[in-house]
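Entry 14. Two folds queued back to back today. First construct below, sequence then structure tokens.
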Amino acid sequence: MWIPTEHEKYGVVLASFRGTVQHGLPLEIGDTVQILEKCEGWYRGFILKNPNTKGIFPCSYIHLKSAHIKNKGQFETVIPTEDSVITEMTSTLRDWGAMWKQLYVKNEGDLFHRLWHVMNEILDLRRQVLVGHLTNDRMRDVKQHITARLDWGNEQLCLDLVPRREFSMVDPDEISVTELYRLMEHRHRKKDTPVPASTHHLFVNMKSLMGANLGEELEVFFHIYDGRENKPISERFFVRLNKTGVPKSPEKTERQCTLFVDLGSSDLRKDVYIVVHIVRIGRMGTGEKKSLCSVQYRRPFGCAVVSIADLLTADSKDDHLLKVYSCTTESEWHQIHENLIKKASSRYNLSGSNTGLSVALQLLHGDIDQLRREYLVLFKRGVSITRKLGFSDVIMPGEMRNDLYITLERGEFEKGGKSVARNVEVTVYVLDIDGQILKSHVAAGSGEPGGDDYHSLVLYHNNTPRWAEHVKLPIPVDMFRGSHVRFEFRHCSTKDKGEKKLFGYSFVPLMQEDGRTLPDGTHELIIHKCEENANLGECSRYIKLPFSKTNLPANNQTLKSTKESFWITSFLCSTKLTQNGDMLDLLKWRAHPERINDSLSKLKEIDGSEIVKFLQDTLDTLFGILDESSKRYGLKVFDSLVHIINLLQDSKFQHFKPVMDTYIESHFAGALSYRDLIKVLKWYVDRIVEAEHQDHIQQVLKASEYIFKYIIQSRRLYSLATGGQNEDEFRICVHELFMSIRFFLSQENKAACPVTQTQAVFLRTFPAIYAELLKIFTVREVAGFVRETLASLPTTAQSECPLEAVKLQCIAKTVESQLYTNPESRCVLVPVVLRLLQAHMQEQRELVMCARILTSMLSLIKKEETGTPEPVMSEEVELIVDSLLGVLLRTILEITNRPQPAGSSLRLQFQDVTGEFVGCLLALLREMSDRHYQQLLQSFTSKEDLRDFLLQIFTVFRILIRPEMFPKDWTVMRLVTNNVIITTVLYLSDALRKNFLNDKFDYKVWDSYFYLSVIFINQPCLQLESFSPSKRKRILEKYGDMRVMMGCEIFSMWQNLGEHKLNFIPAMIGPFLEVTLVPQPDLRNVMIPIFHDMMDWEQRRSGNFKQVEAKLIDKLDSLMSEGKGDETYRELFNSIIPLFGPYPSLLKKIERETWRESGISLIATVTRLMERLLDYRDCMKLGEVDGKKIGCTVSLLNFYKTELNKEEMYIRYIHKLYDLHLKAQNYTEASYTLLLYDELLEWSERPLREFLNYPMQSEWQRKECLHLTIVQNFDRGKCWENGIILCRELADQYESFYDYRNLSKMRMMEASLYDKIMDQQRLEPEFFRVGFYGKKFPFFLRNKEFVCRGHDYERLEAFQQRMLNEFPYAIAMQHVNQPDQTIYQAEAQYLQIYAVTPIPESQDVLQRDGVPDNIKSFYKFNHIWRFRYDRPFHKGTKDKENEFKSLWVERTTLTLVQSLPGISRWFEVDKRELVEVSPLENAIEVIENKNLQLRTLISQCQSRQMQNVNPLTMCLNGVVDAAVNGGLARYQEAFFVKDYVMNHPEDGDKITRLRELMFEQAHILEYGLAVHEKYVPQDMRPLHKKLVDQFHLMKSSLGIQEFPAYVRASPVHFTNGSPRTCRNSVPNIISPEGGRGGVARRSPLSYPAANRYSSSSLSSQASNEVSNITGQSESSDEVFNMQPSPSTSSLSSNHSASPNVTSSAPSSARGSPQLADKHKHCRDNTCLSPRDRPVSAVFPNPLDPAQRASSHQMGDATLPRSDPNLSAPDKDKVKEGMRPFQCPPVPPRGLLTGSSVKNMRSQSPVLTSRSPQKNTLPPFTPSPTECPSAGLVSASPVLSGSYSSGISSLSRCSVSDASATEYGTLGADHGPASAAALALPLGVPNSASEEREVRRENKTPPPYSVYERNNPCRRPVPLPHSLSVPPAAQSSSCSSSSSQADPPALPPKPHQLRTSSMKLDSSASLSSDPRVTRPRPLPRKVSQL
């Protein structure tokens, strides 16, 4: 049976448990579990990180831990009782673990490794804490280290700042908000600015002297030297080195390591140095032989210097190698370091190039105790301490020191009868009072123990030596009296014996008779002569002698005149001895009573360090004098006491305050002193008002704290001694004293008045007195003193008065004092404090102090909550609310709206005060109960006051929610703030409902309420979805989801509004929509019904909800672009109508609504917009610019224009798209995009407002700017033809304004574009069809197919790879068939990609002879609407002998919604047409294409466009050679046999056409060989001869003896070989039907070169292709797999017909791999590359009636073409109406008059016919050779079937079908006008005017127009009108003479007004043609943009 557990509540999993049993809970090692029940060795419970899943698990797997239980029962919470630091470590490490792995994924290796080390370190420290073996100090250090590491990691990972107190996390509910703010700020500041240490220490570790191999021992002395003052500031550190240059005692680290302690911050300057002197121990000269002398001398060796500032920048871990300079001139030894510091090192020698002192130097910071903790090893190992000379910056009481420092400065000696100067050595001894040498009391420096004596350096032959050596004499205090120092002088001989001969001595006593020590400074000592054997051991012999020349009596001239002297400098550093006589006089006052007055007066002149040394003795002296003669010396003693007390205020001596406190508590014995002290103090206070000089009085008041301490302690001692006598007298004295104080405080004076300053001085010290008064008086009495004293202060505030600030400081200290913490005294003080606070805050003065006071008050309320009675607390809160809540709100509003100060320190202060006030407000609101809120709301006397209060508090709350209110990582603080806000809002919403509804409705208050609620919900810190699971769980447990609470409150308040809801429509639509975008299901379910309500009320008011719709759409765009909303939201919004399940009344209401349909329509529109916006946002998140982003933007842009008609949004997205194109370097697309905006503007002077990046300007100026930008981008995109149009339009504008300067520039720009067309090479792009299938694609791509324009040089493989990179999860489909529904509906992404062929619209330019390829290339690949893809397949049984009998082609034609290129690189396919091309039609296309290719090459060769004849050679070779192998014969076998003709009677015309083409090919070959013979180089002649022979074989194989008449005429009509010179001559065209007038046909070579061969095509591929066309093949399947040979030209290799393309012709057998049999007759061909797959000719299937049209090709001859759509009479009319003639050249200008945009729009979309086939044609005379022919050409003269351009049906290099420029398309439904026009007899001549008209009309459209199709089947798509000239409809309309517009008028004259230049031509008005549909125009509010 399962029993609830009592104590077994919490545990950790010891081993993983799979949970395979029934109801088992899987556990992982380390999980923490909460246990609910227990049963027979099993527990039931859950894992804490997933409390929703409960289950059972074995007891043995769990390690139980003790825990606290909150809310015992069903919803109990378990809190482990372990140390809070351990708990935090565990949870933090868990959070870090997941993020740490992500760092690896994001490739942040540095942080990854650092965090790994820190995590390991924390785990180690955690183990130490858990084991529990640490001492308290060590535990504290470990916890500090852990928390520092945790904070570092949280900061690096951008996690939250954790508020802590004493290393433990703080629960924000258990402390005041003000205290929480302070903790957070302290942690934040600590993180930002570490407090700089004031004390520094230099660690020195002497390693060795590198490179010095002297063979002598060395002594190295370090000291710190002040280069500014030129004096040492530390003792010396002394290291002995052995003969090899390393320390003598390496095992004793204290002898080679030291710490120079107590360096102040001022010592870390550039001019403070570490100076090293090196002395050698050995012979006098370094070169002397060892045998000469055995005596050792100390001799100078070298010196090194390094600046301390260098250590601050250098790496402390590196050893420093100091350069050692040796002193050549010994007389300069004493100043060698000074010269090195001054950079005068040139006079010294380096001891060697590699000689240097290897030293480790490191600066350490902090006090010495802190260093002992941090550098434990260092101090354990041993390190000597080297002190500063003198006391440190801060003198600590109890510090014992008694060091006398002697510096041997210099000496002056006589020669002493010697011929050379002496070698003098000084020996120093210290002797006690008995004349005994003190052992170990002479120290050369720290590091080595002290010795009995000290031997100085010996300077060679120097009678005036300067040593500058420092000796330390650490003599005990008790031995100072009577001791002296003796200096013995010896001459060191350099002779063999090496003796040291004594020749004199000096001495100096250490203490004078009066007890003063030897004064600091330089002393000139007398040198007393003596002999070597003199007995100096008995010091009594010389101790009475004079020792210093300064102390000599006047009569002793003999010693004064002696030349020999010895100078020393002494310096005493003692805490016990003094050199000051005045100090000694005061301490011995009883010995000399008459000197008391002088001694007390001189006390102020004594150095402070002397006074604090003898602090207790001095105080005893003063109070002794006071007790004995108070009347006489009372004032003097009081002043002296004040001086000492104020001395302790100095930072240097502040640590002696505890010494004085101890003295007062333990040693002070002046029981009667209080009377005198009170009396004197009152005397001073009473004199304040009259006194002229306040300085001394201010000093007295500054010391008042300690004066009161002495008064109180004295009174207590008196009470103890007398049993409390004179108590009343004492109280009266104190009351009188306070009356005097209150009187002087109440004086009102000017700010600069001395009394005001004195008042300020007293107020600063006043709070320190409270604690002393409490020792005698009751709490209420003291509170009364304080209240009355503070109340006596003058109330008139002057902002510049310093007293105001001091007053508040006094209040602050009062609030923080022990007195205020007592509730009894607090109730007395609170009113005074609040009154002062209120006054200052109302006037916005001293806000920092006000914040500090209020913070302390509110912190105290929280602390006292548990211990204080509720009524007292409640009353205090009530007082604060009444006094300060309104002021507090106003203050926060004021300081947050004030501009922030510039200085960083001021700004920090500004932020501090804001945060403090915010903390106070939150703390106050959190302390308020229901009763407080009720009283607050009742306290407002009028509605206006309540309204103002509500508006204020809502505004403040909005400010608190701002992200910048708190630092980013203060989530804890933000959550507390939000909790307080929502609690307060719930209270205030009642007041809102009661007071501001119905007739009292106030829009402003309600609006402020709703606005606050919305931004509250949208705060980042409440978006729990973005947090880690553990953080989310913590927040939900503590606060719940505050967004849902606020959402419910919004809904409730909205329902209360009733008819007032209309006031918030449409204003609140945006904010509420923002709330619904929060991904919280409950919140959305609450908020979405509000939209129904809005629609309903709007419908009632205005009959529709257009306002709601407009606002919804605008806001949705901006919100989603900010990253809000998700797919679920779209689905939720889409289901808004059925969503009212929880609200049955609403559902019924909706069902009754008349507006149900329009509501659903609105939701559908919004949903579609949301789909696009979500796609747009997702795409924009990706890194680089790609097609997905552009496509998505295009989709959104079109949606805004076509469906929503939102002009401003439309224009915004135009510019977003433009930027994307520029970034991707799609300059052409960028131009087309910007044109969309340009289209919306007119050439007018209307002013436009500033918009996006455009300044405020006129519409004309903006349009001009746009034009120039677009032309520039067209130029960069090499789309120069389009740029020319815009140049012309701008030029017209400039011309109309006579702006000839800009006109000239524009004409030059236009000319430069023409030059670029002719001179620069353009790459021809590939086009690819891409299908996106599956539900995982973005909405704008899903289950759609597009055609994409590839990048330069991009082929199919590269394009496929790019698409797969853009859609990494997509699967590439390996076939070209249309997918089925399973693919469409799949939850995946499928890509289907293959190349397609463009079908150009501009056939007239492409079919002209002599037009350069540079020009033609533009029309082949621009303004393309239709694309084609061909797939060959076999229908029926395949004839193995001749497979061409059954080889069909499936031709797919794709029509786009918009032409390419356009505003995107890809457009969606609008229409898909599928036709099948029969084998015969395929054969016709193959031969036509080959004939066209031959003609082109021959023409190029004739016109010298070819550099060499090789392409023609290869083409001829391919055709002729293939023919020999039976190429054309295969077609004869297939289609000319009787069986085929009998079975296919309908193909008669086509068979005839095939015959004609065969003969034509032979004729072209013959002509081509003739041309070839003319141009072939000599080395190619044999090949040419071979070709001629093979051609004759080919003719005979075809059975051709003589060419038929209709092909016998000369095939080319060029004058002088140039195609241009005879362009307008009438060709000699022969009709096969003779006099019956057949269809005019082109001469074989005049056929336009519409393939994609450039003039440089030297491809071997060409011959392969031709041979494939005409050669024989066993199996056509081989052909499909052939690979072309590489091309020598980038263009020909890409775009010439591939072998596969031509495979429908018989080809010679090649060794190609066979396709599997199952594929041979299969239509499902795999997706092939552009070179591998079959592609058809450009024309659609001729059998397709929609696409079949008469083609009226221009050139020397016109080939026959019949249209099956025409009736028989119409066909005859066509035949009769056609006349051959030459096309005129491309005109340089043509269409545009005035503004091209304007006029193009105004003209009819049915283009003016530019083709030569008019109803009036020049007369035509047939050739005399024209006659009927027998044999092959005896078939029907009417040739059926579609004309094709001549390259294989599978070719990608072909021209399009008949375009509207060649007659228009003739159909059965053409009107009588067009039929009549075509029925005119051919031979009727016309007038000259008609001839002129022909010339005029025979122009092609300008080669720059961008055609816009007006297909009625397709919905209109917006196009750039200024580049659009709509062609005649292909199948629905005919361009005849009667419907054609007149030619455009000439450009306007410059003097005409601009407006007139833009007038519409009424005859050409767009509206004149009702058949033309135009895109819906945008409303003309564009002028605003």
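Second construct, same run, same settings:
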Amino acid sequence: MPSILADVFCILDIETSCLEEKNKRDHFTQLVLACLYLVSDTVLKERLDPETLESLGLIKQSQQFNQKSVKIKTKLFYKQQKFNLLREENEGYAKLIAELGQDLSGNITSDLILENIKSLIGCFNLDPNRVLDIILEVYECRPEYDDFFVPLIESYMYMCEPQTLCHILGFKFKFYQDPSGETPSSLYRVAAVLLQHNLIDLEDLYVHLLPGDNAIIEEHKREIVEAKQIVRKLTMVVLSSEKTEEKEKEKEKEEEKTEKPPDNQKLGLLEALLKIGDWHHAQSIMDQMPPFYSTSHKPIAIALCQLVHVTIEPLYRRVGVPKGAKGSPVSSLPNKRAPKQAESFEELRKEVFNMLCYLGPHLSHDPILFAKVVRLGKAFMKEFQSDGSKQEDKEKMETLFSCLLSITDQVLLPSLSLMDCNACMSEELWGMFKTFPYQYRYRLYGQWKNETYNSHPLLVKVKAQTIDRAKYIMKRLTKENVKPSGRQIGKLSHSNPTILFDYILSQIQKYDNLITPVVDSLKYLTSLNYDVLAYCIIEALANPEKERMKHDDTTISSWLQSLASFCGAIFRKYPIELAGLLQYVANQLKAGKSFDLLILKEVVQKMAGIEITEEMTMEQLEAMTGGEQLKAEGGYFGQIRNTKKSSQRLKDALLDHDLALPLCLLMAQQRNGVVFQEGGEKHLKLVGKLYDQCHDTLVQFGGFLASNLSTEDYIKRVPSIDVLCNEFHTPHDAAFFLSRPMYAHHISSKYDELKKAEKGNKQQHKVHKYITSCELVMAPVHEAVISLHLPKVWDDISPQFYATFWSLTMYDLAVPHSSYDREVNKLKVQMKAIDDNQEMPPNKKKKEKERCTALQDKLLEEEKKQLEHVQRVLQRLKLEKDNWLLAKSTKNETITKFLQLCIFPRCIFSAIDAVYCAHFVELVHQQKTPNFSTLLCYDRVFSDIIYTVASCTENEASRYGRFLCCMLETVTRWHSDRVIYEKECGNYPGFLTILRATGFDGGNKADQLDYENFRHVVHKWHYKLTKASVHCLETGEYTHIRNILIVLTKILPWYPKVLNLGQALERRVHKICQEEKEKRPDLYALAMGYSGQLKSRKPFMIPENEFHHKDPPARNAVPATVQNGPGGAGMPTSLAINTVRLEEGTTEETDKLKEKSQGVVKVINKTVNATPKVTTSNGNSASNSKIIKEKDDKEKSGKEKDKEKKDKTPAATPEMKALGKDGKDKPKEERANKDEKAREIKEKTPKSDKEKEKVKKEEKASKEEKSKMVVTIIESKSTAEKEREKEPSRERDLAKEMKSKENAKGGEKVPVAGSLKSPVPRSETSESEREQKRRKVDTHSSPSHSSTVKGMAVLPKVPLVSENYSSSRIISVHFLQDNLNELKDSSAKHYINHTTPTLSKSKEREVEKKDLDKSRERSREREKKDEKDRKDRKRDHSNSDREVPQDSTKRRKEENGTTGSSKHSKSESPSDSPRLNEKEKEKNKSKSSGKDKGDSIKAEKMEKSSSGSKKESRHDKEKTEKKEKRDSTGGKEEKKHHKSSDKHR
């Protein structure tokens, strides 16, 4: 009842508290109070609200009541008994620890222990979280019981919340995060194991670890900055050593101050994960850090390396262990969750390669693992390179290979950089690298050098330290300390070769004297380092920032030359692979760049010992024409002893990479590329250098292939000649050069086959077999060459001749006996020296002697073999020769084709080819080859060398000079002795001067060129060479001057032989020396060199009259001049040597030259216009035999008249006299008067007396005039001008005198006695006077003027003899004019072909001559007196005054029409008459200015000097003969001369 009532009150309480009416509430309160005796206050306190109880007065404060009830409830319902601290419940916890720490080896399981733990928790109210903590603690202490604790914790976790374990671990890690705290490794391990078993998440635990990721990134950045600062400090130049010391001290202090950084718990955990093999979680941690940051800590790197060791173990044991090595096996991890061990390369790729990538450069911490990885790589490459696997496997292997390359790039090479000079690792790595193609290797080196070092702070530091050390070593490297420095370089190179070599190469490029010591010091490198060096060289060569030319744009940069030289030396000395370098050169050539051929040239020269130099002596060249042994002994500058291995290496590199032929073809094509593509913007000098370099390298490289490739290799690689030329566009000379060894190999192998087949031992049989084998081999070549040229070409020369010329070499034509003897004698001397050497040990003596004896035997055997070979070749040529030259057009055309297609291209190809060409011409002559005119051939070679010289490069000029030298040697041999000439040329078809159309070359002696005329011809050739040389020297063009000086230096042994020509050259070269000293030092050096050599040759030069008799026998002169007609319709019976075509060519050439010389040529034209008429008109009347006789007469008279004219021209200075044979050398002058008297006494016949008188008179007159002129010029310019006006009148007087005499004789030509060639010495002019004149002449800076020489250069190949007397231009011109007139007169007359005029005529002429001589003598005496008076005045003039007269004298000479034998003008044709010429002269005269005169005077002077000072040495007999000849034809010419000289004025 009370309880129910209490419930009712409770409901009412709730209801009334909700009502708004207060009285109802009050009623309720009263009701309850009234019923208190029914319901106890205890029941009410249970049921009613505290506020109601307070209002009823049952409790004091409701709030306090509430609090008290909550406390009581908590205490009753919520408070559990749990002990967290060990001291609170030490018994329970002690039992727990005892339970966990007991011996677990028995049958105790984690489940059993778990049950016990639960009981302990229940019994002792232990805190479950603390129990978990204690389990972890015990696990830390008993790490070996993974299998027990891990399941225990796993089971226990089912009773906890998932996060509890992670929080407890986090709490443990936090405990050690004090600056001084160090996290124990056992904790890391427990955390790692729990992570591995997925009992906690890495993300949950990671946040509890320090430091934060941001701090790690900051630290990484700081390391990079520090590394860069270190680099900067190392590269900085510090001037004060004290400052550096202070800085070092500061650094040390800073290092001491810096505290040890707080423990990096993330890295500790990572290390633990790696140690237990949890690669998955370890990778996740690494990914959250900067690359290689984690592995840059050594413990982590070592842990990862250990993991890799374990993973690769089975595969390494299977394929990687070297034969015979035991190795120490690595036990696998007990952990089943560790990565699976690799059994195959595919598994290796999946697991291990990834680990290695995270390791990066820090594989360096474990060299053993490094070696294992490399060996696995080697094993893989072996498998990769063995064919026969399926397509799928191949694809897998390709993927694996690319992965291996990546590992090499990212791990192996950077690790090698961080290893401390470990040579074994370098060699180990090379074992794998050498299986890669060089392209891959070089790519790897490139990455290593240019990118790897920037990827990591450690590598940045290492790079800087390496450079610093390299600088230190290079500063101290000398020839003396090569060994110690080399060791240091080797040590440094084992780890960082790219950086070291880069620096060394940069030093070599600056200082080429470092090359030798550096090459010697590199002997301590590993194979890998040598390969890296090859790459570094190529990279240095390909550097796009470097200019390949010097600033003057004319020479190749010295850095490139130094590198090339270094290349050659280093590749020869050490076994470095060449393929990359050779391919680089080939690629550059493909790109049209030929600079880098310099490298190939050096490499071939050093490795194969094959030199290409233009400085070879003739002895060396001769040795080069022998066999291989002789070449090696006597052909090169350096001894080629030890090139066998290096040349074999070079050969293998070329063959393995198929570069032999491509390089040859590219070089052959690039020669023209240099000129037409590469050379556009470049300086001409540089283009020439590049062309030479390209050509020389081709010759050198081709020579190397020919001597080193086996026959099969060579034939397999070189295509046939037509394919080379037509498909590969190889120039013909280069194509034959490449094919030549192939033909020789072919023929010798065929010959050997035939010999074996038939055992016939007779010499004839052998020769027959040889010829058969030649035919077999060469027949296809004959067919192939037809396509190389137009069909027209084969009208003149046969394909057989063409192929024979191009396929033979000097080895085939002659045996260099003297070279063989020289080398054998050297060996004998050597053996004697060995015998005499007392100090040499006996066994060494024996060895050396054996070596010398063996060499001697080899040489003798080789000589014998070559002799037999040459005899066979000559037999073959003898049989072939009749089909060689077909001459379907003209012989002239045949020679043109021969020179154009054979001689000229080949003579500038190489020095030996130059000698070969000269030899071949001689051989063709000696074989008496039909249709071959030796005379024409030599004439064409010597006549116009200007164009060939001007178009040569420097080295081509040198080779062309050699060719001319050999040609001149032959000519000089024939010229030297009549017996030799008669034996070798007398009856040979090559020396026929009348070329029959019938093709009959036979023995009409009258058609042969006799010895004396040949000597004239040789003089003509010498004169032509002088003319061309002076022209080139006059041009001022760099190429012309350089080339002609080179050519002149080469032909010095045989030219100049004639004194006056030598003097003319000497003066011109001297002028070049003066002009070029400041401007072009290279030309100055060349000119000085030549000048010195020329002076030393001077004693061997001879006067002109000793070189050839100036008046040739007239009969034999005829054929040479007659045959010069055009080969046209008017000449059915005789072919002209100089065809119309040739003449047209020369007139065109003259036109071109005219443009250059402008006004000056006008003067020349006046005197010369007649010349070509002689050449051509002769032919028109060639059918008349009478003309021949007439020409004889004219030639004789022409020469005499020329002489007369020279004497008579008032302007003739002493120099003219000298040239005109009037003058003598100074020492001879004193004898002049005595000689004259003696001659007068001796020559008693009236005829000769009269002649002499005339001559004397003439000479006196001319000398007086000349001396007067010189004096007046010196006095003043105005007097010079007056003289000019006077001269014509003097000349006119003489001319009138002549005319009157001629008229008196009824039109017969009266000879003038005082001709230039007169034997009478210079009359009474005193010696001192003459000397003075000569001095003035000598002060002239140039002997001749370019314009006149330009004229000369283009003279057509005109009368072989008439040109020959043109030792002075005057002679030839007047002689030609005379010939013309006489030709004209005689065109209707018929003379028999005889050579001397009738006696009666000659007597009449003699009488006239006597009269003339008397009048001349008188005038001379007068002039002498005048001269003596003026002599004193002349001496007083200063040098500066002298120079003015020199110019004016030149002008005077020029005016006087003495600029003879220059070019013909356009308008001339075979039928031109002399009259036409006269008109032209008139026109030209009006045009010519004073300047023209001055210019031509210079030319005149040169020519005069060239023929001077030789007369006195002649015998009296000769003199009388010449006078007789002059008598016969002199008068008419003299008259003509006066006319022409008048016109000139």
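Quick look at the second one. The chain has a mean pLDDT of 74. The radius of gyration is 55 Å.
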